[in-house]
Amino acid sequence: MAETLDIALVQTRTPATAAAGLVHVEPLIRRAAAEGAKLIATPEGTNLLEQRRALRDAALADEAADPAVAGLKGLAAELGVWLAVGSVLVRSGVEGDARAANRSLLLDPTGAVAARYDKLHVFDVDLPGGETYRESAAVRPGEAAVVADTPWGRLGLSICYDVRFPHLYRGLAKAGASLIAVPAAFTRPTGEAHWETLLRARAIETGAFVLAPAQGGTHEDGRRTWGRSLVVDPWGQVIARADHDEPCLVHAKLDMSAVERARGAVPSLLHDRDFDLPTP
């Protein structure tokens, strides 16, 4: 297993259609590979971001027919890199359910899909500033957590709102994940308040590297997302970051032996105990 890993996080401001999404992200992925990244991670909604239901439904395709998915597979193969596509919004394929799947795809250097993960937790909220989100109306939640093998260790997959559910990350770590992806399109109010704190907590709790590529800025559908993509090491230290919302790359070189050191110093993954919950 390789001891070091050159990664790049791709921060984007994805447009509202998959064709435009591919045009937006492709130059950043090409640059990341040219600059030496072997694992390249993109944000949630890499293919498209559109919250207006009628326009979103018109833009959705099956995974196999989505032009961004096809283009990203081709890029992984052409560039010979692992590509952790934070998520694509595609038709769920479930009969009788018109909602989309919010799906992470891990592509290997041949362009094949090494793993799929559908977002488990969907975000429904009314924010004090007047913004309202009803992800459950548009997205069908997934059913299972996913880890996948890479040359650098096992990669646990998660998406955005999942980061608020620490038991998921503990499960990924116990399944052997030494890298955990948290691609996101965080809202600005919650991003400013919670983004970095949550990511550092998940790294500390799991003793894993956390890779968090994000959307940033004001999008075509009017949503405003918090960029600040970052990489957290297994001790909870931010080792690379963007300090803005603009499309960019965040590079880091990971010493994979840091995972064993962190888990050896604080072996909490070995110390679970059963306990009775208080009565509500």
Automatic annotation (TrEMBL):
Q: Which UniProt keywords apply?
A: Hydrolase
| InterPro entries xrefs | C-N_Hydrolase, C-N_Hydrolase_sf, Nit1/2_C-N_Hydrolase, UPF0012_CS
| A Pfam family it matches | CN_hydrolase
User: What SUPFAM superfamilies does the annotation carry?
Assistant: Carbon-nitrogen hydrolase (SSF56317)
Look up the domain of life of the source.
Bacteria
Residue stretches in coiled coil: none
Every copy of the CN hydrolase domain together lies at 5-256
Kindly list the GO molecular function terms attached to this UniProt entry. Answer: hydrolase activity, acting on carbon-nitrogen (but not peptide) bonds, in linear amides
Regarding protein family, the annotation reads: Belongs to the carbon-nitrogen hydrolase superfamily. NIT1/NIT2 family.
Output the PANTHER family linked to this UniProt entry: DEAMINATED GLUTATHIONE AMIDASE, NITRILASE-RELATED
What name goes with this protein? Carbon-nitrogen hydrolase family protein
Which species is this record about? Brevundimonas naejangsanensis
